[in-house]
Amino acid sequence: MKGYKLKLNILTILGLCFAGLIIFCAIYFLFLSWEKTRSNLHLSNPIELDFFETAFKFNKKELKLEDKNIVAGIIPHHLLAADLIAEFFYNLRDGDYDIVILIGPNHFNTGDSEIITSSYNWQTPYGILECDKKDLKKLLETDDIHIEEGVFENEHSINSEVSFIKKTFPKAKFLPIILKSSIDSTEAENLAEKLFELSKNKKVLVLASVDFSHYKDSPTAQKNDKESIGAIDDYDFDKVYNLDIDSPASIYTLLKFSRLSGSEFELLNNSNSAILADKLYIESTTSYVTGYFTKSNSAPKAIKMLFFGDMMLDRGVDEKIKQYGLDYIFGQLDKESFYKGYDLISANLEGAVTNNGEHYAPEKEFDFAFKPEIIADLKKYNFNFFNLANNHFGDQGAQGISETLKNLDDIGFNYAGCGNGIISDCSSKILILENKKIGMVGLTAFWGEFDLEKAKQKISEIKNKTDIVILNVHWGEELDTQFTSYQQKIAYALIDYGADLIIGHHPHVVQGIETYKNKLIF
User: What digits encode the pLDDT tens for the residues 201-235?
Assistant: First the structure.
C-alpha cells in the first residue's frame, strides 16, 4: 500500500511538473510573440494621452470646409505648437480618409536612402495606427524609395504627429515618408507624381510636417513667413528651395501633388514660438504655418475663351470707324450676342496704342498706330486681352511701345508680348479665370530664327505658377493657307515644353488646325 501511494505521489509530482512546463512554454511563446509584435511597432512621442487631450482643449479657429474637399495640408512638428496642430486636425474632424500620407524632413540625414519609408504600425495613446501595406508596396516598385525602420525611432517630424492622426481618423491607414535635405526638385516632383497616382482610386490626405522660420527674432520670422506663405499660395515653385523652412523638399512635393490635384491653398494659422510663449523679446524662434489645400465639391465651371487673329484699326479701317463707328465692324455679330458669355476675348493687336494715335518718325510703308479711345471702345464687345508680340508693336519706336503699355493699363486691358522678338518678363501675363490661373504668353517667330531655348525657359517659368499655359505665336507667311514645316516644328517643341494651347496669327488667312499630344494648335 505504501509503495502504491509513493508511486501515486511521484506521478502527481511529475504531472504537475509537466503541466508547469507546458504553462511556462505557453507563457514564454506568448512573450516572444508579444516581443515580436512590439518590435514591429514605432511609438508616438509623446505617448501620454493627457498631452494630446490638453492640446485639443485650446480655443480653435474654425474654417468653413463643409463644401470643400481637403486633399493636402501643412502642419508643424514642434510640439510647442501642439495646440495649432490640434486646431488643424479639429477642422478635419468630419473627414473620412482611406490613407494619410505624412511627409517630413529627415532631420539628421541618417540612413542610406534619400527617400525613406516604414512598414511598421505605430503605437499611439488612441490605439494602433496601421501601415498601409498595399500602397507601400506600390511605392516600393521604384528604386528611389526604401524602407529603413531605424531612422524613424528619433524622427520627430513623424512621431510627433501620429497620435493626432489616429485620434482624428481612427479608421485611416498610414504611410510616413521622410526626405533628406539633398532631395532636389526633380526627385520631389517624381515623388509627388507617385503619390498622385495613389490618390486616384481612394481618398488620400497628404500632409507636410514642416516648421518654418528658424533662429530669427519674431518680426523677422513673420516677414519670412509672409514670403513663404505667398510662394505657397502662388504655387511659386522657383522660390521654394530658397524659403526659410526646414524642409523645402517636403513643401515642393506637397505643392506638386496639390497642383496635380487641382487644389488651392487656404491658410489656417501662422505663429512662432515667441508669440506662443508670450516672450516677444526672444531672439531665436521657430515659426509655424498651418493650412489646407482645398477643392470645391461642386463641378468646376468651364472657362470660355474667344481668340481673334490680327486686329488693325488704322488707315482705311480708321476712316470707316470715324464715319460709322466700331459697330460698322463688330455690330452685326453683337446683335447675335456673339461676344457674350466669354471669360476672355483676345486679339493680336497689330500696332501701337499711342497718345491720340500719333505716328512717330521714321514712318514705314506699313506703319500702324491706334487712338486709345478706339481701343477703349472694344470693351463694349467684351475684349479684355491683347497679344503684343508681333511685327507692328514697335512701329512707333520706343516711345510708341511705352505709350502703348501705359494706355492699355489706363484703359484696363490685360496684355502680353515684347517688342522686336524679345522673350522676357514682358512676354507673359497670369490671369485668374474661374479660380484657375491662366498663363498667357506672347511670342513672335517673325524676327529671324526663333529662340526655342528662351521660349522653353519662359514656358517652364509660367507652367510652375499656373494651371493652363496658352501661347499666342506670330508666325507664318502672309496669305499662305497652309502652315509650314518650320511652324509645325516650333509648335511641337512648344507643346513638348509645356504649352497647353497655341493660337497662331499673322498670315491674314485661316491656316490648318492640328492636334499634337492632345493639345490644339490653331
Answer: 899 999 999 999 999 999 999 999 999 999 999 89
In this structure, how many other beta carbons lie within 10 angstroms of the beta carbon of residue 423?
24
Going by C-beta distance under 8 Å and a sequence separation of 6 or more, which residues neighbour residue 106?
Answer: 116, 151, 155, 157, 178, 179, 180, 181
163-198 exposure pattern, b = at least 16 Cβ within 10 A, e = fewer: bbbbbbbeebbbbbbbbbeebebebbbbbbebbbeb
Distances (CA, A) of 163 to 82, 177, 457: 11, 16, 44
Grid coordinates representing 144 are: 528611389
Report yes or no on whether pTM surpasses 0.85.
no
d(CA 68, CA 392): 47
Other beta carbons within 10 angstroms of residue 431's beta carbon come to 19
91, 168 contact by CB (below 8 A)? no
List pLDDT tens digits, range 22-49: 665 454 444 433 343 446 999 999 999 9
C-beta separation of 139 from 194 below 8 A: yes
